[in-house]
Amino acid sequence: MTSSIEGVDDRVMAILVTHERPPKASPMSATITHLWRGIMAFKHFPAQLIDIILLPAIFLLLFTYLFGGAFAGSPHQYLQFFLPGIAVQSVILMTVYTGTAINTDINKGVFDRFRTLPFWQPAAIAGNLVGDVLRYLIALTMTIGMGLALGFRPGGGILGVLAAVAVLIVFAFSVSWIFAAIGVVASVPERVSGTSMIVIYPLLFMSNIFVRPETMPSWMQVLVKVNPLSHAATASRTLMHGTAGFWDVMWALITSALITVVFAPLAVRLYRNKNTR
Amino acid sequence: MSSPPTLAIETSGLRKLFGQTAAVDGVDLQVPPGVVYSVLGPNGAGKSTLIRMLATLLRPDGGKATVFGHDVVRESDAVRRRISVTGQYASVDDALSGLENLVLMGRLQGYTWPRARERAAELMDAFGLTHAAGRLVSTYSGGMRRRLDIAASIVVSPDLLFLDEPTTGLDPRSRNQVWDIVRALLAGGTTILLTTQYLDEADELADRIAVVDQGKVIAEGTTDELKASVGQVALHVRLRDPGQRDKAEELLTQELGAPVHLEGDPAELSARVEDNSRVLQALGALTRASIEPAEFSVTRPSLDEVFLTLTGHKADDQSAGEAGEENAA
Ligand SMILES: Nc1ncnc2c1ncn2[C@@H]1O[C@H](COP(=O)(O)OP(=O)(O)O)[C@@H](O)[C@H]1O
Ligand SMILES: [Mg+2]
C-alpha cells in the first residue's frame, strides 16, 4: 500500500487495516473476557473493598454488642446465632452492584459497542455475575473471619462453614439476576441502588437473620417463613452449626433455583431487547 | 465485473418515530463501497438516529435498510459482522486503562489473549497513545478518548465504519488527527459513513454528501454537485483605484443583472450571479470603461452557503439552541 496520506506512514497504515478475521469468540471465552474486565476494573478501584468490608463489620459489631445481651442473654450467645445470618446480609448487599454495573454500561454507551460485536450477548451479564462471586467470597471471608475473632464457634467445623459459604454464593448468584434485570430497565445507576435498598432492607429485617421468629406475632411469622432470605439464613445457620437437616438446605437451593429460572431469562431478554436512546 | 457491486448501504423510506416526532422521516440513501459518505446536518436533524438504525442498535419504524445487501432487522448478525460503530459519545470503559479497553475489544472479536494484547499495543502505538496505555481512560483528554474510541472500532477492520460526529468538540489538532485516521482507513479499503455538523469537514473528507434537516434528506450528491445545484457563482472584484468603485458598481449591476455588494475594503465589490457567461461580459465591460481590476475571482459557493440556501437557516443555528437546552436540563 502506498502512503499518499499526509502524516500517516506505511507502518501505521499496515497496522490500521488488518485482514485478519478471527473466529467468533465462544460463549465461554466471551464470559471469561467479561469476568476479566470486572477484575481489572476492581484492580483499578480497590476502594470498593471498603464497602465490602465496612458494611458487614458495622452491622456485626453493632448488633452483637448493642442488642446481643437483650436478644440472647449475652453478646457471645447472640453471636453464635447472628453470625450465620449476617453472612446472608453481607452477600445480599453486594448483589446490588450487579445491577449498578450493568446500568452504568448501558448509560455510558459501552453496551452499544458490545451489541454490535458478534459475541454471545448474555456473556456481558454472565461475566458480571461471575465476577460478583469474587466479591461475595471476599465479603463472606471478612464477615466469618471477624466473627471467629469475636468468639464465633461453628459447631459444624470448617466443612460446615465451607458448605454454608457455597450455599450462600449460590443464593446470592440467583438474587443478582434480579438486580441484573433491574439494572437493565432502570434509568440511572443511582435508581438501581435506591430501588434495591427499599426492597432489601425490609426483607432483611422481616427474616430470621436478626431474631428468632418465635417471639413475633403469628402473621409476621408467616411472612418471615416465606421470605427467601430466611431460607438462606436457615441453611447458613444449620450448616455452620452442623445441625442441618435435608430441608434446611434444600429450601435455600430450591429458592435459588426458582429465582434464577425466572430472572435469568428475564434479564437476558430485557438486555437483548433494550433500545437505548 | 459486469454486475454493479453491492451497495455498502441502501435505504428506502427509512423512518423512526419518537412519540410524535419523526427523527428520521423517509430517508433514501445509496452509499457505494469504498467511499467516505457524509451525512451533514444540524443538531437534531436525525443523524444519530439514522446511524443507530443502520448499525442494528435501533429498530426502524418504517422503510427498509440494507448493509452490504443484508437487512438490518432480519439479518442483524450478518450486518454486525461487517460493521463497526463509533458513537457520538465515546463508548469506552472509563474504569479500564486504554490498553485494557482494546484488549477487551480484541477478545470479544475472537482473538486469543496473546494476539489481543499484541493488537491492542499495535493500535495504541498507531494512534499515538502508547504513553498513556496504562492510564485509566477517565484521565484521557477529549482527543485521546476519541482516538481510543476509533481504535476500539477497528481492532478487526470493519468493511463499513460508522463515525457519529467524530470531531465535535475537538481542538483543531485532534480534529486533524481524526481526519488523517479517516483517510488512512479509506485508503485501506474501509467504507466510512460519517456524520458531521461541520460543512468544512464534509467538504474536506467526503466523496458524497447527504444534507439532512428535520429527518429528511434535502440534498444529495458530490460536493461539486451540491455546490452546482445551488446554481450560483460568486464574483469578487478588487480594483486598482478605489475611486472608480461607484462607476464599477453601476456597470456591474447593469451587466450582471444582479445586486452588487460593496465590501468593507473600499476597493472591493462582489456579486452573486446565476449565469456564468454574464461574468465574462461584465469583466469585459469594466475593461472597456478603463476600470482595471487588480484581481478578481469567480468562486462557487461554500457548503455553508449551500446549506443556507437549502434549509433557509444556517448550519449552526440550532446547535446554539441545543446548547442552551442542555444547560437548562
Ligand atoms: N430516544 C429518544 N427519545 C425521544 N426523542 C429522541 C430520541 N433520540 C432522538 N430523539 C429526537 O430525534 C431527533 C433527532 O435526534 P438525533 O438523531 O440525535 O439527531 P442528531 O444526531 O442529528 O443531532 C431530535 O429531535 C431528538 O430530540
Ligand atoms: Mg447526534
Explain what the structure shows.
The complex is a heterodimer of chains A (277) and B (329). By secondary structure, chain A is mainly α. Chain A has one domain (27-273). Helices cover 78% and strands 0% of the residues of chain A. Chain A has helices at residues 10-16, 27-44, 48-72, 75-108, 110-115, 122-150, 157-185, 189-205, 218-226, 228-240, 246-273. The relative contact order of chain A is 0.13. Chain B has 329 residues and is α/β, with parallel strands linked by helices. Chain B is built from 12 helices and 14 strands. Chain B has a 6-stranded mixed beta sheet with strand order 6-7-8-3-9-10, with helices on both faces. A 4-stranded antiparallel beta sheet of chain B has the order 2-1-4-5, with helices on one face. Chain B is elongated, with a radius of gyration of 24 Å. In chain B, 45% of the residues are buried. At the A-B interface, α1, α2 and α5 of A face α2, β6, α3, α4 and α6 of B. The site of magnesium ion has 5 residues of chain B, from α1. Chain A: The chain crosses the membrane at residues 49-72, 78-98, 133-152, 158-185, 192-211, 249-271. Chain A: It is a multi-pass membrane protein.
Please supply descriptive tags for the structure shown above:
heterodimer; A: 277 residues; mainly alpha; elongated; disordered N terminus; B: 329 residues; alpha/beta; Rossmann fold; Alpha-Beta Plaits; 2 domains; six-stranded mixed sheet; four-stranded antiparallel sheet; 12 helices; 26% strand; disordered C terminus; binds adenosine-5'-diphosphate; binds magnesium ion
